[in-house]
Amino acid sequence: MQLKTSLKPNVQPLSPERPTRITIARGDGIGGEIMDATLSILEAAGARLEYDEIRIGRQVYLEGHSSGISPEAWEVLRRNRAFLKGPITTPQGGGYKSLNVTIRKAMGLYANVRPCRAYTPYVESNFPDMDLVVVRENEEDLYAGIEHRQTTEVVQCLKLVSRPGCERVIRYAFEYARAYGRRKVTCMTKDNIMKHTDGLFHEVFDEVAREYPDIQSDHYIIDIGAALLSARPDQFDVVVTLNLYGDIISDITALVAGSVGLGGSANIGDNIAMFEAIHGSAPDIAGKGVANPSGLVHAACMMLTHIGQAKVAERILNALLRTLEDGIHTDDLYNEAYTRHRASTEEFTRAVIERLGQEPEKLKPALLGDAAKPIEVKVQPGKRSNKQLVGVDVFLDWADGRRDPGELGRVLEELAGQQLQLKMITNRGVKVYPNGFPETFCTDHWRCRFVSGDSRVKPMGNGMAYTAQVPYDEVVALLQRLADAGLNFIKIENLYEIDGERAYSLGQGE
Ligand code: NAD
Q1: Pocket of ligand 1, candidates 281, 288, 329, 342: which has the most ligand atoms within 8 Å of its Cβ, to mutate?
Q2: CA neighbor of 245 nearest in space, from 188, 202, 193, 203
Q3: Structural domains of the chain ordered from first start
Protein backbone atom coordinates (compact mmCIF):
# COMPACT_ATOMS: atom_id res chain seq x y z
CA MET A 1 0.00 0.00 0.00
CA GLN A 2 1.37 3.43 -0.95
CA LEU A 3 0.87 5.85 1.91
CA LYS A 4 3.09 8.72 0.81
CA THR A 5 2.10 11.30 -1.78
CA SER A 6 3.38 10.76 -5.28
CA LEU A 7 5.35 14.00 -5.02
CA LYS A 8 8.71 12.94 -3.69
CA PRO A 9 10.01 15.64 -1.37
CA ASN A 10 13.68 16.28 -1.04
CA VAL A 11 13.80 17.95 2.37
CA GLN A 12 17.00 18.33 4.35
CA PRO A 13 17.36 16.36 7.56
CA LEU A 14 16.97 18.42 10.72
CA SER A 15 20.12 19.54 12.42
CA PRO A 16 20.20 21.65 15.59
CA GLU A 17 22.99 23.91 14.33
CA ARG A 18 22.30 24.24 10.63
CA PRO A 19 19.58 26.69 9.62
CA THR A 20 16.43 25.07 8.23
CA ARG A 21 15.40 26.34 4.82
CA ILE A 22 11.70 27.15 4.69
CA THR A 23 9.32 28.48 2.06
CA ILE A 24 7.44 31.71 2.70
CA ALA A 25 4.63 33.44 0.81
CA ARG A 26 3.33 36.87 1.71
CA GLY A 27 -0.10 36.41 0.14
CA ASP A 28 -2.60 39.25 -0.21
CA GLY A 29 -4.09 42.13 1.79
CA ILE A 30 -2.30 42.46 5.13
CA GLY A 31 -0.16 39.41 4.26
CA GLY A 32 2.98 41.41 3.44
CA GLU A 33 2.74 43.54 6.58
CA ILE A 34 2.26 40.66 9.00
CA MET A 35 4.89 38.52 7.24
CA ASP A 36 7.50 41.30 7.58
CA ALA A 37 6.60 41.68 11.25
CA THR A 38 6.82 37.95 11.85
CA LEU A 39 10.16 37.55 10.08
CA SER A 40 11.69 40.39 12.15
CA ILE A 41 10.52 38.71 15.35
CA LEU A 42 11.88 35.33 14.21
CA GLU A 43 15.22 36.88 13.39
CA ALA A 44 15.48 38.81 16.65
CA ALA A 45 14.62 35.67 18.62
CA GLY A 46 17.48 33.75 17.00
CA ALA A 47 15.47 31.37 14.81
CA ARG A 48 17.89 29.44 12.59
CA LEU A 49 16.09 29.82 9.26
CA GLU A 50 16.76 30.50 5.61
CA TYR A 51 13.99 31.46 3.21
CA ASP A 52 12.75 30.77 -0.29
CA GLU A 53 9.87 33.03 -1.27
CA ILE A 54 7.07 31.99 -3.63
CA ARG A 55 4.10 33.82 -5.09
CA ILE A 56 0.54 32.83 -4.19
CA GLY A 57 -2.87 34.46 -4.13
CA ARG A 58 -5.08 36.83 -6.03
CA GLN A 59 -2.65 37.98 -8.72
CA VAL A 60 -1.61 34.39 -9.45
CA TYR A 61 -5.27 33.39 -9.77
CA LEU A 62 -5.91 36.27 -12.15
CA GLU A 63 -2.89 35.27 -14.27
CA GLY A 64 -4.86 32.12 -15.03
CA HIS A 65 -3.52 29.62 -12.48
CA SER A 66 -6.78 28.29 -11.09
CA SER A 67 -5.22 27.07 -7.82
CA GLY A 68 -3.67 30.43 -6.90
CA ILE A 69 -0.09 29.18 -6.94
CA SER A 70 2.48 29.60 -9.71
CA PRO A 71 3.62 26.33 -11.34
CA GLU A 72 7.31 26.88 -10.49
CA ALA A 73 6.44 27.31 -6.81
CA TRP A 74 5.67 23.59 -6.40
CA GLU A 75 9.31 22.63 -6.76
CA VAL A 76 10.26 25.06 -3.99
CA LEU A 77 7.50 23.80 -1.71
CA ARG A 78 8.60 20.23 -2.25
CA ARG A 79 12.22 21.04 -1.49
CA ASN A 80 11.70 22.60 1.94
CA ARG A 81 10.43 21.13 5.18
CA ALA A 82 8.05 23.93 6.11
CA PHE A 83 5.89 26.57 4.44
CA LEU A 84 4.92 29.75 6.29
CA LYS A 85 1.97 31.13 4.40
CA GLY A 86 0.35 34.56 4.52
CA PRO A 87 -3.41 34.88 4.00
CA ILE A 88 -4.75 35.19 0.49
CA THR A 89 -7.79 36.76 -1.14
CA THR A 90 -9.76 34.29 -3.20
CA PRO A 91 -11.25 36.18 -6.19
CA GLN A 92 -15.05 36.12 -6.30
CA GLY A 93 -16.79 34.05 -8.96
CA GLY A 94 -16.43 30.52 -10.26
CA GLY A 95 -13.51 28.46 -11.47
CA TYR A 96 -11.04 29.24 -8.68
CA LYS A 97 -9.94 26.36 -6.49
CA SER A 98 -9.06 26.72 -2.84
CA LEU A 99 -5.29 27.06 -2.55
CA ASN A 100 -5.30 25.49 0.89
CA VAL A 101 -7.16 22.42 -0.29
CA THR A 102 -4.87 22.07 -3.33
CA ILE A 103 -1.68 22.27 -1.27
CA ARG A 104 -3.09 20.03 1.45
CA LYS A 105 -3.96 17.30 -1.00
CA ALA A 106 -0.92 17.56 -3.28
CA MET A 107 1.51 17.54 -0.35
CA GLY A 108 -0.29 14.93 1.76
CA LEU A 109 -0.85 17.26 4.73
CA TYR A 110 -2.92 14.82 6.74
CA ALA A 111 -3.39 16.63 10.05
CA ASN A 112 -4.71 20.11 10.67
CA VAL A 113 -3.72 21.34 14.11
CA ARG A 114 -5.38 24.35 15.73
CA PRO A 115 -4.54 25.35 19.29
CA CYS A 116 -7.24 27.52 20.91
CA ARG A 117 -6.46 29.27 24.12
CA ALA A 118 -8.08 32.11 26.06
CA TYR A 119 -6.14 35.26 26.93
CA THR A 120 -8.51 36.74 29.47
CA PRO A 121 -8.81 39.42 30.67
CA TYR A 122 -6.78 40.97 27.81
CA VAL A 123 -8.94 39.30 25.19
CA GLU A 124 -12.52 38.68 26.26
CA SER A 125 -13.71 35.08 26.68
CA ASN A 126 -16.16 33.38 29.03
CA PHE A 127 -13.66 30.59 29.62
CA PRO A 128 -10.39 31.91 31.04
CA ASP A 129 -9.01 28.38 31.52
CA MET A 130 -9.71 27.23 28.00
CA ASP A 131 -6.61 25.79 26.36
CA LEU A 132 -7.29 23.03 23.86
CA VAL A 133 -6.04 21.79 20.52
CA VAL A 134 -8.21 20.52 17.68
CA VAL A 135 -6.50 17.93 15.46
CA ARG A 136 -8.55 17.49 12.30
CA GLU A 137 -8.14 14.81 9.65
CA ASN A 138 -7.30 16.80 6.56
CA GLU A 139 -7.54 14.71 3.41
CA GLU A 140 -10.51 12.36 3.50
CA ASP A 141 -14.16 12.25 4.53
CA LEU A 142 -16.63 14.30 2.49
CA TYR A 143 -13.76 16.56 1.42
CA ALA A 144 -12.51 14.09 -1.17
CA GLY A 145 -14.67 16.21 -3.46
CA ILE A 146 -16.28 13.26 -5.26
CA GLU A 147 -19.80 14.41 -6.04
CA HIS A 148 -22.25 13.31 -8.71
CA ARG A 149 -25.72 14.28 -9.73
CA GLN A 150 -27.22 10.88 -10.42
CA THR A 151 -30.85 11.53 -11.21
CA THR A 152 -33.07 14.53 -11.82
CA GLU A 153 -33.69 14.80 -8.10
CA VAL A 154 -30.68 13.35 -6.29
CA VAL A 155 -27.06 14.43 -5.84
CA GLN A 156 -24.45 12.37 -4.05
CA CYS A 157 -21.20 13.16 -2.19
CA LEU A 158 -18.90 10.26 -1.35
CA LYS A 159 -17.56 10.01 2.16
CA LEU A 160 -14.25 8.16 2.01
CA VAL A 161 -12.47 7.13 5.18
CA SER A 162 -9.39 4.90 5.16
CA ARG A 163 -7.73 2.95 7.97
CA PRO A 164 -4.26 4.43 7.32
CA GLY A 165 -5.85 7.89 7.06
CA CYS A 166 -7.49 7.48 10.48
CA GLU A 167 -4.43 5.93 12.03
CA ARG A 168 -2.05 8.66 10.93
CA VAL A 169 -4.07 11.54 12.31
CA ILE A 170 -5.02 9.72 15.51
CA ARG A 171 -1.40 8.72 16.19
CA TYR A 172 -0.42 12.31 15.50
CA ALA A 173 -2.94 13.49 18.13
CA PHE A 174 -1.55 11.12 20.77
CA GLU A 175 2.07 11.90 19.91
CA TYR A 176 1.20 15.60 20.05
CA ALA A 177 -0.38 15.13 23.49
CA ARG A 178 2.76 13.40 24.73
CA ALA A 179 5.17 15.91 23.22
CA TYR A 180 3.29 18.93 24.55
CA GLY A 181 2.56 17.57 28.02
CA ARG A 182 -1.19 17.27 27.45
CA ARG A 183 -3.22 14.77 29.45
CA LYS A 184 -6.19 13.72 27.40
CA VAL A 185 -7.22 13.01 23.80
CA THR A 186 -10.94 13.09 22.98
CA CYS A 187 -12.29 11.55 19.79
CA MET A 188 -15.51 12.87 18.20
CA THR A 189 -17.48 10.95 15.58
CA LYS A 190 -21.06 10.20 14.57
CA ASP A 191 -20.62 6.43 14.63
CA ASN A 192 -24.09 5.81 16.01
CA ILE A 193 -25.31 6.71 12.50
CA MET A 194 -22.31 6.16 10.21
CA LYS A 195 -21.26 2.82 11.62
CA HIS A 196 -18.75 1.99 8.91
CA THR A 197 -16.99 5.29 8.14
CA ASP A 198 -17.13 7.04 11.51
CA GLY A 199 -17.14 3.59 13.10
CA LEU A 200 -13.71 2.94 11.58
CA PHE A 201 -12.35 6.22 12.96
CA HIS A 202 -13.62 5.35 16.45
CA GLU A 203 -12.34 1.77 16.23
CA VAL A 204 -8.84 2.91 15.20
CA PHE A 205 -8.94 5.53 17.96
CA ASP A 206 -9.62 2.84 20.57
CA GLU A 207 -6.82 0.67 19.18
CA VAL A 208 -4.27 3.49 19.14
CA ALA A 209 -5.37 4.78 22.57
CA ARG A 210 -4.40 1.43 24.12
CA GLU A 211 -0.80 2.11 23.07
CA TYR A 212 -0.76 5.36 25.09
CA PRO A 213 -1.72 4.34 28.64
CA ASP A 214 -0.16 7.57 29.96
CA ILE A 215 -2.74 9.67 28.08
CA GLN A 216 -6.44 9.59 29.01
CA SER A 217 -8.83 9.01 26.16
CA ASP A 218 -12.57 9.34 25.65
CA HIS A 219 -15.15 9.62 22.88
CA TYR A 220 -18.18 11.84 22.28
CA ILE A 221 -20.77 11.74 19.56
CA ILE A 222 -19.99 14.89 17.56
CA ASP A 223 -23.30 16.69 18.20
CA ILE A 224 -23.06 16.63 21.98
CA GLY A 225 -19.28 17.02 21.68
CA ALA A 226 -19.66 20.25 19.70
CA ALA A 227 -22.24 21.51 22.21
CA LEU A 228 -19.87 20.77 25.09
CA LEU A 229 -17.00 22.48 23.29
CA SER A 230 -19.02 25.67 23.26
CA ALA A 231 -20.47 25.29 26.78
CA ARG A 232 -17.53 23.77 28.71
CA PRO A 233 -14.43 24.07 26.50
CA ASP A 234 -12.14 24.16 29.52
CA GLN A 235 -12.81 20.44 30.07
CA PHE A 236 -11.11 19.46 26.82
CA ASP A 237 -7.46 19.06 26.02
CA VAL A 238 -6.72 17.52 22.59
CA VAL A 239 -9.68 16.74 20.33
CA VAL A 240 -9.23 14.54 17.26
CA THR A 241 -11.93 14.13 14.65
CA LEU A 242 -12.81 13.65 11.00
CA ASN A 243 -12.43 16.37 8.38
CA LEU A 244 -15.91 17.95 8.27
CA TYR A 245 -16.52 17.88 12.02
CA GLY A 246 -13.01 19.23 12.59
CA ASP A 247 -13.61 22.08 10.18
CA ILE A 248 -16.70 23.11 12.12
CA ILE A 249 -15.49 22.61 15.68
CA SER A 250 -12.17 24.34 15.10
CA ASP A 251 -14.07 27.51 14.16
CA ILE A 252 -16.38 27.12 17.15
CA THR A 253 -13.45 26.73 19.55
CA ALA A 254 -11.49 29.63 18.05
CA LEU A 255 -14.52 31.89 18.48
CA VAL A 256 -15.30 30.65 21.99
CA ALA A 257 -11.70 31.30 23.00
CA GLY A 258 -12.19 34.84 21.70
CA SER A 259 -8.91 34.64 19.85
CA VAL A 260 -9.69 34.16 16.15
CA GLY A 261 -7.39 37.09 15.36
CA LEU A 262 -4.54 35.55 17.37
CA GLY A 263 -4.77 31.92 16.32
CA GLY A 264 -2.34 29.98 14.17
CA SER A 265 -2.81 26.65 12.49
CA ALA A 266 -0.61 23.91 11.10
CA ASN A 267 -1.18 21.43 8.30
CA ILE A 268 1.17 18.53 8.90
CA GLY A 269 2.45 16.00 6.37
CA ASP A 270 5.11 13.29 6.50
CA ASN A 271 7.81 15.54 5.08
CA ILE A 272 6.29 18.94 4.57
CA ALA A 273 4.05 21.12 6.72
CA MET A 274 2.23 24.40 6.13
CA PHE A 275 1.67 27.04 8.81
CA GLU A 276 -0.64 30.04 8.68
CA ALA A 277 -2.83 32.41 10.69
CA ILE A 278 -6.49 31.49 11.06
CA HIS A 279 -7.71 34.88 9.83
CA GLY A 280 -7.96 36.02 6.21
CA SER A 281 -6.32 38.79 4.20
CA ALA A 282 -8.34 41.61 5.86
CA PRO A 283 -8.56 43.81 2.75
CA ASP A 284 -10.39 46.49 4.79
CA ILE A 285 -7.23 47.36 6.73
CA ALA A 286 -4.55 46.37 4.20
CA GLY A 287 -1.78 48.95 3.77
CA LYS A 288 -2.79 50.93 6.86
CA GLY A 289 -0.06 49.52 9.09
CA VAL A 290 -2.51 48.50 11.83
CA ALA A 291 -2.80 44.71 11.33
CA ASN A 292 -2.13 42.42 14.24
CA PRO A 293 0.68 39.99 13.30
CA SER A 294 0.01 37.65 16.27
CA GLY A 295 -1.84 34.96 14.25
CA LEU A 296 1.08 34.52 11.87
CA VAL A 297 3.56 34.76 14.75
CA HIS A 298 1.69 31.91 16.47
CA ALA A 299 1.80 29.92 13.25
CA ALA A 300 5.54 30.61 12.98
CA CYS A 301 6.01 29.34 16.56
CA MET A 302 4.18 26.12 15.67
CA MET A 303 6.54 25.86 12.72
CA LEU A 304 9.65 26.39 14.87
CA THR A 305 8.52 23.65 17.25
CA HIS A 306 7.79 21.37 14.31
CA ILE A 307 11.32 21.79 12.97
CA GLY A 308 12.96 21.30 16.34
CA GLN A 309 13.45 24.91 17.48
CA ALA A 310 10.97 24.82 20.35
CA LYS A 311 13.14 26.94 22.65
CA VAL A 312 13.03 29.83 20.19
CA ALA A 313 9.26 29.40 19.82
CA GLU A 314 8.88 29.52 23.59
CA ARG A 315 10.85 32.80 23.82
CA ILE A 316 8.66 34.39 21.17
CA LEU A 317 5.38 33.18 22.65
CA ASN A 318 6.28 34.46 26.10
CA ALA A 319 7.31 37.84 24.71
CA LEU A 320 3.99 37.98 22.85
CA LEU A 321 2.05 37.19 26.04
CA ARG A 322 4.01 39.79 27.95
CA THR A 323 3.26 42.42 25.27
CA LEU A 324 -0.43 41.59 25.58
CA GLU A 325 -0.25 41.90 29.38
CA ASP A 326 1.60 45.19 29.15
CA GLY A 327 -1.40 46.62 27.31
CA ILE A 328 0.36 47.15 23.98
CA HIS A 329 -2.46 46.21 21.65
CA THR A 330 -3.20 46.58 17.96
CA ASP A 331 -6.57 48.12 17.06
CA ASP A 332 -8.41 44.81 16.86
CA LEU A 333 -7.59 44.08 20.52
CA TYR A 334 -8.28 47.57 21.84
CA ASN A 335 -10.28 47.68 25.09
CA GLU A 336 -10.60 50.50 27.55
CA ALA A 337 -9.68 48.51 30.62
CA TYR A 338 -6.43 46.95 29.48
CA THR A 339 -5.05 48.82 26.46
CA ARG A 340 -2.25 51.18 27.49
CA HIS A 341 -0.97 51.88 23.99
CA ARG A 342 -2.81 51.51 20.72
CA ALA A 343 0.02 50.18 18.63
CA SER A 344 0.66 50.07 14.90
CA THR A 345 1.92 46.79 13.43
CA GLU A 346 5.45 48.14 13.60
CA GLU A 347 5.17 49.34 17.20
CA PHE A 348 3.63 46.05 18.27
CA THR A 349 6.43 44.13 16.55
CA ARG A 350 9.06 46.25 18.27
CA ALA A 351 7.36 45.73 21.63
CA VAL A 352 7.47 41.94 21.19
CA ILE A 353 11.15 42.06 20.20
CA GLU A 354 11.96 44.23 23.25
CA ARG A 355 10.33 41.61 25.49
CA LEU A 356 12.20 38.59 24.13
CA GLY A 357 13.58 36.81 27.18
CA GLN A 358 10.73 37.98 29.46
CA GLU A 359 7.80 35.92 30.67
CA PRO A 360 4.19 36.95 31.29
CA GLU A 361 3.31 37.67 34.92
CA LYS A 362 -0.40 36.86 34.90
CA LEU A 363 -1.07 34.74 31.82
CA LYS A 364 0.12 31.15 31.85
CA PRO A 365 3.56 31.15 30.21
CA ALA A 366 4.26 29.04 27.15
CA LEU A 367 6.29 26.00 28.17
CA LEU A 368 7.43 24.04 25.18
CA GLY A 369 10.94 23.29 26.40
CA ASP A 370 12.70 20.21 25.15
CA ALA A 371 9.57 18.11 25.43
CA ALA A 372 8.12 19.45 22.21
CA LYS A 373 10.30 17.52 19.79
CA PRO A 374 9.43 17.10 16.12
CA ILE A 375 6.62 14.56 15.94
CA GLU A 376 7.08 11.60 13.65
CA VAL A 377 4.22 9.29 12.80
CA LYS A 378 4.80 6.08 10.93
CA VAL A 379 1.89 3.98 9.70
CA GLN A 380 2.55 0.51 8.37
CA PRO A 381 0.27 -1.06 5.77
CA GLY A 382 -1.92 -3.69 7.43
CA LYS A 383 -2.38 -7.25 6.20
CA ARG A 384 -4.73 -7.72 3.27
CA SER A 385 -8.26 -8.75 4.19
CA ASN A 386 -10.17 -11.74 2.94
CA LYS A 387 -12.90 -10.24 0.81
CA GLN A 388 -15.87 -12.11 -0.64
CA LEU A 389 -18.54 -10.76 -2.97
CA VAL A 390 -21.94 -11.68 -1.56
CA GLY A 391 -24.30 -9.41 -3.44
CA VAL A 392 -24.76 -6.08 -5.15
CA ASP A 393 -26.67 -2.85 -4.65
CA VAL A 394 -27.89 -1.53 -7.99
CA PHE A 395 -28.99 2.10 -7.99
CA LEU A 396 -31.73 3.00 -10.45
CA ASP A 397 -33.08 6.27 -11.79
CA TRP A 398 -36.78 5.39 -11.96
CA ALA A 399 -39.75 7.73 -11.97
CA ASP A 400 -42.45 5.73 -13.76
CA GLY A 401 -46.15 6.16 -12.99
CA ARG A 402 -46.91 6.70 -9.33
CA ARG A 403 -43.40 5.60 -8.32
CA ASP A 404 -44.93 2.57 -6.68
CA PRO A 405 -42.17 0.51 -5.00
CA GLY A 406 -44.39 -2.57 -5.33
CA GLU A 407 -44.41 -2.19 -9.09
CA LEU A 408 -40.63 -1.78 -9.28
CA GLY A 409 -40.25 -4.74 -6.92
CA ARG A 410 -42.33 -7.01 -9.15
CA VAL A 411 -40.30 -6.05 -12.26
CA LEU A 412 -37.01 -6.65 -10.45
CA GLU A 413 -38.15 -9.99 -8.95
CA GLU A 414 -38.61 -11.23 -12.50
CA LEU A 415 -35.22 -9.96 -13.66
CA ALA A 416 -33.32 -11.32 -10.65
CA GLY A 417 -31.65 -14.69 -11.22
CA GLN A 418 -31.12 -17.76 -9.10
CA GLN A 419 -27.66 -16.52 -8.02
CA LEU A 420 -28.73 -12.94 -7.29
CA GLN A 421 -32.17 -12.50 -5.76
CA LEU A 422 -33.88 -9.25 -4.90
CA LYS A 423 -33.55 -8.69 -1.14
CA MET A 424 -35.01 -5.22 -0.77
CA ILE A 425 -35.43 -1.79 -2.30
CA THR A 426 -34.70 1.41 -0.38
CA ASN A 427 -35.33 5.02 -1.23
CA ARG A 428 -32.87 7.44 0.42
CA GLY A 429 -31.91 4.58 2.73
CA VAL A 430 -35.44 3.69 3.90
CA LYS A 431 -36.79 0.26 3.00
CA VAL A 432 -39.79 0.56 0.69
CA TYR A 433 -39.95 -3.03 -0.65
CA PRO A 434 -40.98 -5.54 0.46
CA ASN A 435 -43.40 -4.36 3.15
CA GLY A 436 -42.63 -0.63 2.98
CA PHE A 437 -44.82 2.04 4.51
CA PRO A 438 -47.10 3.96 2.15
CA GLU A 439 -46.13 7.18 3.97
CA THR A 440 -42.46 7.01 2.86
CA PHE A 441 -41.72 9.74 0.34
CA CYS A 442 -40.01 8.33 -2.73
CA THR A 443 -37.61 10.23 -4.98
CA ASP A 444 -36.43 9.00 -8.39
CA HIS A 445 -33.35 7.32 -6.79
CA TRP A 446 -33.74 3.65 -5.83
CA ARG A 447 -31.20 1.33 -4.23
CA CYS A 448 -32.05 -2.27 -5.15
CA ARG A 449 -30.22 -4.93 -3.14
CA PHE A 450 -29.55 -8.28 -4.78
CA VAL A 451 -27.95 -11.02 -2.72
CA SER A 452 -26.84 -14.54 -3.32
CA GLY A 453 -29.71 -16.90 -4.04
CA ASP A 454 -27.76 -19.60 -2.30
CA SER A 455 -29.23 -18.28 0.89
CA ARG A 456 -27.25 -20.15 3.46
CA VAL A 457 -27.54 -17.19 5.75
CA LYS A 458 -25.67 -17.44 8.98
CA PRO A 459 -25.81 -15.03 11.92
CA MET A 460 -22.60 -13.09 12.47
CA GLY A 461 -21.49 -10.64 15.20
CA ASN A 462 -23.42 -7.49 14.41
CA GLY A 463 -25.98 -8.73 11.92
CA MET A 464 -26.56 -11.31 9.22
CA ALA A 465 -24.08 -12.21 6.55
CA TYR A 466 -24.36 -14.21 3.35
CA THR A 467 -21.77 -16.83 2.84
CA ALA A 468 -22.14 -17.87 -0.78
CA GLN A 469 -19.78 -16.17 -3.19
CA VAL A 470 -21.28 -14.46 -6.21
CA PRO A 471 -19.36 -14.73 -9.49
CA TYR A 472 -18.79 -11.33 -11.14
CA ASP A 473 -20.35 -12.76 -14.31
CA GLU A 474 -23.65 -12.94 -12.46
CA VAL A 475 -23.49 -9.23 -11.63
CA VAL A 476 -22.73 -8.34 -15.23
CA ALA A 477 -25.56 -10.61 -16.45
CA LEU A 478 -27.99 -8.98 -14.01
CA LEU A 479 -27.02 -5.50 -15.23
CA GLN A 480 -27.50 -6.63 -18.83
CA ARG A 481 -31.02 -7.89 -18.01
CA LEU A 482 -31.84 -4.59 -16.29
CA ALA A 483 -30.57 -2.60 -19.29
CA ASP A 484 -32.49 -4.82 -21.71
CA ALA A 485 -35.64 -4.17 -19.69
CA GLY A 486 -35.11 -0.42 -20.14
CA LEU A 487 -34.14 0.22 -16.54
CA ASN A 488 -31.65 3.04 -16.07
CA PHE A 489 -28.98 1.96 -13.59
CA ILE A 490 -26.80 4.80 -12.38
CA LYS A 491 -24.26 2.90 -10.34
CA ILE A 492 -23.63 -0.27 -8.42
CA GLU A 493 -21.98 -0.97 -5.08
CA ASN A 494 -20.66 -4.45 -4.47
CA LEU A 495 -21.61 -6.06 -1.19
CA TYR A 496 -18.71 -7.78 0.53
CA GLU A 497 -18.07 -9.91 3.50
CA ILE A 498 -14.60 -8.98 4.73
CA ASP A 499 -12.82 -11.34 7.11
CA GLY A 500 -16.17 -12.93 7.82
CA GLU A 501 -17.92 -9.66 8.77
CA ARG A 502 -20.71 -7.91 6.88
CA ALA A 503 -18.97 -4.93 5.25
CA TYR A 504 -22.00 -2.82 4.29
CA SER A 505 -24.84 -1.16 6.14
CA LEU A 506 -28.35 -2.53 6.36
CA GLY A 507 -31.24 -0.50 4.97
CA GLN A 508 -33.36 1.37 7.50
CA GLY A 509 -36.04 -1.15 8.35
CA GLU A 510 -34.16 -4.08 6.77
P1 NAD B 1 -10.73 38.23 7.48
O2 NAD B 1 -10.22 37.33 8.54
O3 NAD B 1 -9.75 38.65 6.45
O4 NAD B 1 -11.28 39.58 8.15
C5 NAD B 1 -12.37 39.60 9.08
C6 NAD B 1 -12.26 40.85 9.98
O7 NAD B 1 -11.15 40.67 10.89
C8 NAD B 1 -11.95 42.13 9.20
O9 NAD B 1 -12.61 43.20 9.81
C10 NAD B 1 -10.46 42.30 9.36
O11 NAD B 1 -10.02 43.65 9.31
C12 NAD B 1 -10.19 41.70 10.73
N13 NAD B 1 -8.86 41.10 10.79
C14 NAD B 1 -8.49 39.91 10.24
N15 NAD B 1 -7.20 39.68 10.48
C16 NAD B 1 -6.75 40.73 11.20
C17 NAD B 1 -5.49 41.05 11.76
N18 NAD B 1 -4.42 40.26 11.63
N19 NAD B 1 -5.36 42.22 12.43
C20 NAD B 1 -6.42 43.02 12.60
N21 NAD B 1 -7.65 42.77 12.11
C22 NAD B 1 -7.80 41.64 11.41
O23 NAD B 1 -12.00 37.55 6.82
P24 NAD B 1 -12.85 37.96 5.53
O25 NAD B 1 -12.99 39.46 5.49
O26 NAD B 1 -14.04 37.14 5.58
O27 NAD B 1 -11.98 37.49 4.31
C28 NAD B 1 -11.13 38.34 3.53
C29 NAD B 1 -10.42 37.51 2.48
O30 NAD B 1 -9.57 36.56 3.11
C31 NAD B 1 -11.38 36.69 1.60
O32 NAD B 1 -10.94 36.75 0.26
C33 NAD B 1 -11.26 35.29 2.12
O34 NAD B 1 -11.51 34.34 1.12
C35 NAD B 1 -9.82 35.27 2.55
N36 NAD B 1 -9.47 34.27 3.58
C37 NAD B 1 -8.27 33.66 3.44
C38 NAD B 1 -7.84 32.75 4.39
C39 NAD B 1 -6.50 32.09 4.19
O40 NAD B 1 -5.75 32.50 3.34
N41 NAD B 1 -6.19 31.08 4.98
C42 NAD B 1 -8.63 32.48 5.52
C43 NAD B 1 -9.85 33.15 5.65
C44 NAD B 1 -10.26 34.06 4.68
Answers
A1: 281
A2: 188
A3: 17-109+262-371 (3.40.718.10), 126-257 (3.40.718.10), 387-502 (3.30.70.1570)
